[in-house]
Specification:
With 219 residues, the chain is mainly α. The chain contains 6 helices and no strands.
């Protein structure tokens, strides 16, 4: 009985580490747009430095999960919880990486005035952050209804991505001298779109955890 209680305590600890990793990724993504908007190179560099915290925590989660499997040999839903933790940690780490990539683009743009208002990019960013927040709640609560909401929000991000890319292509034709910045803004849109995709992957993992069956929520 004591061994079983220890196992469930370890599972809870693994869940807590996932939530912490999600919080770090959210912070990275939030700061990245601040760096872009404020032309804050120092902040962008700090985002890059802080990525090591994300990588170390993901590695810790993987080590803990593998140790649990090796020591406890869990079955059924407990095994799914551990497998899902590894998968979700990978997706969250990638989301944090996109925050770093946005910071790098902000550095490349530098102090150059933005060629257009970035309201649509900011909306993509807001939606991506909200998706991550909701997904972490869904994971903590094992709530498939919230996970499904995340997949529906991804459609909005995809639509915004298409609109912004079209706008940037038109802008490039009218302002070919700003190709470098327009390219970086296009990259930023792509990073946000991919962050949303990885959040949807997490939602799929939650479905697998709860239902024991894989669902493709990207279609």
């Amino acid at each position: 009985m004591v061994v079983r209680e220890k196992f469930h305590d370890d599972l809870k600890d693994l869940q807590s580490k996932i939530m912490e990793l999600g919080s770090l990724a959210s912070i990275q993504l939030t700061k990245s747009l601040d760096a872009l908007e404020n032309r804050d190179v120092e902040l962008a560099l700090k985002i890059m430095d802080d990525d090591i915290k994300v990588d170390m925590l993901e590695e810790d989660i993987n080590d803990c999960a593998i140790l649990l499997i090796a020591k406890q040999q869990p079955v059924a839903v407990d095994l799914r919880r551990i497998i899902v933790a590894i998968k979700i940690a990978t997706d969250i780490e990638r989301i944090a990486d996109f925050g770093v990539n946005i910071a790098k683009s902000a550095i490349r743009i530098g102090n150059e005035p933005l060629v257009k208002p970035i309201e649509h990019i900011k909306e993509m960013h807001r939606q991506s952050l909200e998706m991550l927040r909701l997904t972490l709640e869904a994971f903590y609560e094992e709530d498939v209804a919230k996970a499904k909401m995340v997949a529906e929000m991804d459609d909005r991000v995809d639509a915004l991505y298409g609109q912004v890319i079209r706008d940037l292509l038109e802008l490039n034709q009218a302002n070919p001298g700003h190709l470098s910045q327009i390219t970086q803004l296009s990259f930023i849109c792509r990073y946000l779109e991919r962050a949303a995709d990885h959040t949807t992957n997490i939602a799929e993992s939650i479905f697998y955890l709860v239902k024991g069956k894989r669902y493709d929520l990207n279609n």
